[in-house]
Amino acid sequence: MDSKLIKEEEILSELLGEIPGQVERLSAVREELLANAVLLGEIPAPTFGEGDRIRFVIDRFRENELVAPVIDDCGNASALLPGSEGVNTILVMAHADNVFDQETNHAMTVGSDRIIGPGIADNAIGLSSILTLPALLDALGLKLKDDLLLLANVKSLGRGNLEGAHHFLETTQRPFRAGICVEGATLGRLSYSGLGALRCEINLRIPGDYDWNRFGASGAIAHLSRLVGRIMEIPVPREPKTSVVFGGLRCGSTYNTVPKRGSLRFEITSEADTVVTDLESQVRDLSEEFSLESGTEVKLEIVARRPNCGIPFTHPLVKTTRAIMDSLAITPKVDPSTGDLNAIVQAGHPGVTLGLTTAENLRDENETVLLEPLFKGLAQLIALLRTIDEGLCDA
Amino acid sequence: MTKDTNSWLEQNTFHHSDFWDLRKLVEEKERKGLTISLCIPTLNEEKTIGKEVLILRSELMERYGLVDEFAVIDSGSDDRTREVASAYGADVYLASDILPEMGNKRGKGENLWKAIYLLKGDIICYVDADISNIHPRFVYGLVAPLIQYEKIKYAKAFYDRPLNYSSGLRPSGGGRVTEILIRPLFSLFYPELTNIVQPLSGEYAARREVLERIPFPIGYGVETAHLLDLYQEYGIEAFAQTDLDRRVHRNQTTNALGKMSFGILQTFLNRLRSHGRVEQLPDMETVYRQFEVEEGHYRQLTHKVVEEERPPMIEVEAYLARRKLSKQP
């Protein structure tokens, strides 16, 4: 082993040894972190409607006296926490949008060991950790050598199709040493690859001149359920791993009126882009065939498309993250991401996604985060920043 | 109906956004050497107290230093109110442990009164514990007028209660008890106090020098008593009010409001007696005062309501003649 490697091993070992003691010390910033999470969580931020939440973020960046706080053309908020040397930059990002609409009651309930409310796990608590990061570092008496670029990115979920993250990474000239996506859920999450994915919406409409006397004539619900059955008949390979998930079916409004239109949402994911392309082609053919057979209008819309991407399991960033988790007795759950990590990796930067705490009822209005595991999750994040800062995660 | 815009309403009515710059507000507070205490009276509020303590402490004590002291004074909750409040760093007290030699009475007013003894601030701000959309504005919106204007001694909250958004003009006022009981009583006996949009709101801030000189009903009448006693002593110029936008809280049943009205009426009639208005009832006012708001400006609407009376029919000559009745002695 050469002396550089020996030196790096020593630094890593020293950093890992400090982590368990930091968990307790981070709780000094508990109130600021949770207050930020509640204040953020109570501002509705549906995808494409994150403006009010982003204004709160940028105000916090200014109050914390970060450098160059700015809202870009796409609506992302970013600011810089300068390092002592500033030679490299680490990107730390959390998406600002959630799946709840503007009308949802976003009131949070704060108990002694948990916070409950729509979007608190995905991703108010994650975004709060970005806002509170300067205070968390202060609480540990840490000053990194690298600059930290903090980003609250918009238009991430669903039809947003990672637009905010892509826009930011395409327009930012700065090269990143590494990127970390922070999600509230779930502690132990380790994503270092982006899964090839295709999100589709099929809109079915029964035309005005539809022949209700023809054989097999029926309303939109029956047609859509037949169409689901036909899509499920498409062979899905086991290797490379591939799946089709039906996530939404909207049709009809009452008991006794035949609906004339409906929509179906589903996602195809695969470890091979060619499989995704092939399945897309088959679904497209099937939709056209079904339209002609049934006399209905069937339109397939591709809402989001993501290619497979990632860094290897053996990349120092992944290895170090696993070592950090191990030192905190966190069992890693390796899970390919369909989120913002794709944008980081596609832009050519190494990156991982981490979860901060235990969550329940994800994406329900009573979404819940537990507070006790949160500080372990934050210690993990800060340890990873320190190892990147020390050059231990460079390929 | 006439529209009346008076100068008090224009000059002493604020919106919380007037005080958005908390750094400047804290600077002014420090320059004037003022200290501010915040008190939340509680009774079985475990669902909302955690968030109130978290947000108000974190934003107003740790981030900005506007509030110097923060206490939760509990009336003896059966639920986890005290535990949850403590978990977020509040100093929690049982009202019965404060001034024990004065005995223990159960009621919100008791807690507010004992807060004057317990807390050290020059300004004391009270915030109810049942607000589910708590925000720092609920405190800074109330203490700011007291920091900025020495003549103001008591600042009261009011809220958006949208009843009708058509044409951009909407009535604005208090809850049911305010509109059905308090505003008619004030219109009759204390017309200037009708400028207070929501006299029963549970959030207000006041200078110690005035709080320590007034009695405190322990129950429903405490807010009404404050207004009447301070008005009697200092006049309307001592008051300010701040629009805090929306306040989300529990709705009360009509039965509960009836009980509340009974308590308030006792306080009001007691004050009429102590202010010498029972023996020397003034001529009845015939102008009823309400509010409307347009583009952020509050305006008083005055209605002439004259309750004229007819004599008993038996006293009317024409009636007697028609019925062939003779006049009663």
How many domain modules of chain B? 1
> N- to C-terminal separation of chain A?
17 Å
Report the order of strands and helices of chain B: EHEHEHEHEHEHEEHEHHEHEEH
CATH superfamily of the largest domain in chain A: Zn peptidases
Radius of gyration of chain B, Cα only, in angstroms? Answer: 23 Å
Work out the helix count of chain A.
10
Work out the helicity level of chain A: 25-40%
Most strands sheet of chain A: 8 strands, mixed
* Integer count of domains of chain A: 2
Percent of residues in β-strands of chain A:
15-25%
Work out the largest interface and the residue count of each chain.
A-B, 15 and 21 residues
CATH architecture of chain B: Alpha-Beta Complex
Number of strand elements of chain A: 18
Succession of helices and strands of chain A: HHHEEEEEHEHEEEEHEEHEEHEHEEEH
CATH classification, class level of the largest domain in chain A: Alpha Beta
Are there runs of chain B of 5+ residues with pLDDT below 50, and where? 162-170
Structural class of chain A: alpha+beta
Counted by DSSP, the helix tally of chain B is 11
Q: β content of chain B, as a range? A: 15-25%
Q: State the shape of chain B.
A: elongated
CATH architecture of the largest domain in chain A: 3-Layer(aba) Sandwich
